[in-house]
Amino acid sequence: MKRNLFFLQIFATLCVALFATSCGQTASSDADSGNRVEKILQHLHNPQSKYVIVVSHRGDWRDYPENSIPAIESVIRMGVDMVELDIAMTKDSVLVLSHDRTLDRCTTGKGRISEMTYDSLQSFSLKSAHGGHFGYELKIPTLREALEVCKDRILINIDKGYDYYDQVLALTEELGVTHQILIKGGMPLADVKEKMAAHKNNLLYMPIITPANKSHQPLLEEYLAGEPQLAYEICWSELTPVVESAIERVKASGSKLWVNTLWNTLNGGLSDDKAFMTSPDEVYGKLIDMGATMIQTDRPEFMIEYLRSRGLHD
Hints:
Elements: H1 2-44, E1 53-57, H2 69-78, E2 82-89, E3 95-97, H3 118-121, H4 143-150, E4 155-159, H5 165-175, E5 181-185, H6 189-197, E6 204-209, H7 217-225, E7 231-234, H8 241-252, E8 256-260, H9 272-277, H10 280-290, E9 294-297, H11 300-309
Parallel strand pairs: 1-2, 1-9, 2-4, 4-5, 5-6, 6-7, 7-8, 8-9
Antiparallel strand pairs: 2-3
């Protein structure tokens, strides 16, 4: 009997130890998650940092429906630094994740999102990246749901976020994630300043510049003449002297350089597909040599593997 009690005591002690270890690991994991966001922000706000911030376009859309919660969770597990999400507004003013203005391509429904209530959207399911049914039902998530998943875990670029600036900011302030959110656009600097002057706290902002576009040239001059921006997104279909000059001036201004490897017309042929089919050195390596420290990609896992091999990502 005493022997049985002895073993029971040992068993109980082990259970307590395992429970404490489990709780400690969870707390540590949560702390590490928060620390990682802070580390990414440190790199983001440091134009001298060589760390390359990987931005995943619409989440992991190759394995899950684009702009879905599982697509976000997947890139967080990969170690992606920022996830790009698209938003639209329903008829009853609910912000949801969707790149398209209509339901036709990405869901089992049809029609314009702006003409439907949020509840009516829940009768449709998301489709896979290849247009078929995903295998189990996933609904269009709200921006609130996405931000709750991302909080303290990953930065977020909300595409089309400027269109709904006040509504997005109110939500991010409520959830305590404003510092994690980046939006971008081609708005004149004066308009952006006026918008932000109306609020105590603001989302991060980045101008988008296509140097070969003549209408963008005055915009670039306007921004470069002011205070250094956090970053500039530079797009080009051909790497001309005009483009090269814009890139060099952006770097010299004390701002970070964001480039896209999504498709050839955004990067003069330096796309993810080329990197995958030939060599990442021939694509990602060239962009890094040009000074890119923020890259939006459709192949985040492939890119991270390459960056880690060069000591440019943790």
